[in-house]
Write a structure and sequence with these properties.
alpha/beta, 45% helix, disordered N terminus
């Protein structure tokens, strides 16, 4: 081998260990996800992060912690994520957001979805939340009254409305204060059926069947969402028309949903995570309100309940399940 060929060869081989070390030392960011379950919006969050250049196994690690409908577990799960530590915590629901807030005042927290952020004490101001928390709110206080109105439109005879609610969720007390005057304005009587944990749901459903109101509202709550199949099946079997807050209910056999798009909110949360990784202070990022909402009707369930869905509702629906 000629000397002038040998020297570049030696130089290039000398660079191999350096390149390998650089690749191994590339920064891996860690995201903690604190939620009730692995739902499609959570999967979409991971996919959206990849669009921003973060790929699991290369420069991203996601640590999932799921309460599986047991809200009392959030405190320990949030503390676990803070102790790892992760670079940012992404939460879903009010109990998860409050648990993350109590677990750390330093790690950035992005609320992918929360029913209401100020009244529940998570932040004091939407425009400039301050501290280490920001995210997205689903406007569920405003939407609860709208859900009642939609149920009334579907059921003109509606008079008594059963409210299946998780009494331990801090959002409940706030939303109930909004829901009661909305019901009064529509000439409706609210009857409360409380649950405090997953084990209460079956008993509350039996009470609903026995009381048999004209319709049922199932508000935004991740504990109830974790039991969506049982809830939807029981209400349909009991011939109780119901409106829900999350798309997953109609996919599990529920009649009608109206609420903010969780998928859109989790995609937006991925954008906030990217901003924070690039140096943004979470306290300077405004808590944004949802702008995309879904009205979905399950016409198959409506037929099983013997309901004739008004054409006005069908025309406004974003999705029909037949």
């Amino acid at each position: 081998m000629r000397r002038r060929d040998f020297i570049p060869f030696i130089g290039s081989t000398a660079l191999w260990p350096l390149a390998a070390r650089a690749q191994r030392s590339a920064k891996v960011t860690t995201v903690g996800v604190l939620a009730s379950q692995m739902l499609p919006p959570v999967r979409r969050f991971a996919a959206k992060l990849q669009e921003f250049g973060y790929t699991e196994g290369r420069n991203l690690r996601i640590e999932y912690r799921f309460a599986e409908g047991h809200d009392e577990r959030y405190a320990a799960l949030a503390s676990d994520l803070a102790a790892l530590p992760v670079d940012v915590i992404v939460t879903s629901g009010t109990p998860a957001a409050l648990a993350a807030k109590r677990a750390t005042s330093k790690i950035p927290i992005v609320m992918a979805s929360i029913g209401e952020a100020v009244s529940t004490g998570v932040v004091s101001n939407l425009a400039r939340p301050g501290g280490n928390i920001t995210g997205f709110t689903g406007l569920n206080l405003e939407l609860e009254g709208k859900r009642l109105a939609l149920l009334k439109e579907l059921l003109p005879h509606l008079s008594r409305v059963g409210l299946l609610a998780n009494k331990t969720n801090p959002l409940f007390d706030v939303s109930f204060k909004t829901l009661r005057p909305a019901a009064d304005g529509l000439g409706l009587t609210l009857e409360l059926f409380e649950v405090r944990d997953r084990e209460d749901v079956e008993n509350a459903l039996r009470q609903l069947e026995k009381a048999h109101p004209d319709g049922v509202v199932v508000p935004a709550d991740t504990l109830l969402l974790s039991k969506r199949r049982e809830i939807a099946a029981s209400l349909t079997k009991s011939r109780l028309p119901a409106i829900y807050a999350f798309q997953e209910y109609v996919e599990a056999g529920g009649l009608m949903i109206y609420g903010a798009s969780l998928t859109a909110m989790f995609e937006n949360a991925a954008g906030y995570v990217d901003k924070i990784f690039k140096g943004a202070n979470p306290g300077d990022l405004p808590v944004q309100q949802a702008t995309e909402f879904e009205l979905t009707l399950n016409l198959k369930v409506a037929a099983a309940l013997g309901l004739k869905v008004p054409s006005s509702l069908i025309a406004r629906a974003d999705k029909l399940i037949e």
